[in-house]
# Entry
Amino acid sequence: MHRLTAAFLLAACAPALADDWPQWMGPTRDDHWKETGILQKFPAGGPKKLWSAPVGGGYAGPAVVGDQVFVTDYQATDGQPVKNSPAAMTKRTGKERVFCLDARTGKERWTHEYDCPYSVSYGAGPRCTPAVADGKVYALGAMGDLRALDAQSGKLLWSKDFKTDYNAKTPMWGFAGHPLVYKNLVVCLVGGDALVVAFDKDTGKEVWKSLTTPGAGLAGYCPPTLIEAGGTTQLVIWHPKKLVGLNPDDGKRYWDVDLVPYAGMSIAAPRQSGDYLYAATIGFAGVVLKLDKDKPAVTEVWRGKQGKAEGLYPVNSTPIIDGDVIYGVDTPGCLRAVKLLTGERLWATMRPVTGKDDDPDDRNKHNSATAFLVKNGDRYFIFGENGDLVIAKLSPEKYEEVSRAKLLEPTNEAWNRLVVWSHPAFANKCVYARNDKEIVCYSLAEK
# Structure
């Protein structure tokens, strides 16, 4: 996996400790959990549940820094149930909420909320995990409300509304590009007048903006992503037309490559492994690029193509690259392993995603099925959409399940089944996970 500069680590994670989970996909946004002393398998009856706290609807995973857990949700006031349809907008009235819990007890410390009428498909609640840095919390809601809050008190420091400030249109599935803290900046996928905007993280003042929003004024759903290549830090943006490399300090373009997903669904973050960069999503939109060693530039290695039984095309979750193998949940809903440099498929299974041994390529049965992969040492913790947490070993040869435990019941309907579609946090030798009714904390400490 890629190495980020010391400057970025200090900026993005301060004052985070080594066992914090201060943003989406962890300290360096690569789903690597580095804590030691973690159990090898679950005890009989599952891991010890430490606490549970009520929560409203939402797809946003929690962030954990020290003894604080930060969560976002939606508190509906219209009394109408969520009716999910990939082609229909849900209209709701209610409040979006950012709140803080005690990581040891689950007791509420503070809450910040604001009125937020919804008109969005899959209208359960916010999508983006809060980003925590330097004593501040940055939370982006489903309708484009960006809030900077004091981490200790919840006091509002500054805010932006992408719809009014940048004439951005709310994407069909809401604003979902998790904010990125880099040095003194908060970088966001915005749309409208500017595709990408970098705000001063302390004042909210616009520092730079970059790229023209393609098609219908929509920006896609892919989180801003940092990589190290060509002797510098690069910011990778994937919008519904292109994969683009930018200078993260001023937004100037380095390179771009055509990569057009189905229905504008650029979702999963690009992943770097050494000299290679991989990005893919539904509609056989996928590419592996070789990163130039001497300058910010790329050359194409291979590209996905409909009708060819190769590659991995994730929908809702970002894969992990381990060595020269990509592991991730493919469009049909199966966990799949493919070779990075060729796209050759090695194996596939539904077990960690749904707990069943169904045909891994039966898309009609498991459309957009989802699981989140986190690596710890030589194994993976995989949180499936059925609410199970699985410990597994993944290799080019096979999927080996070590242990399984139920953390949560699925509460959100999708494709005529109940699912949990939120990325858990791993910190303090615990896992923190939520559905649309509760957030729970389980100990994963080795006894």
In short: The CA atoms of residues 30 and 147 lie 24 Å apart.
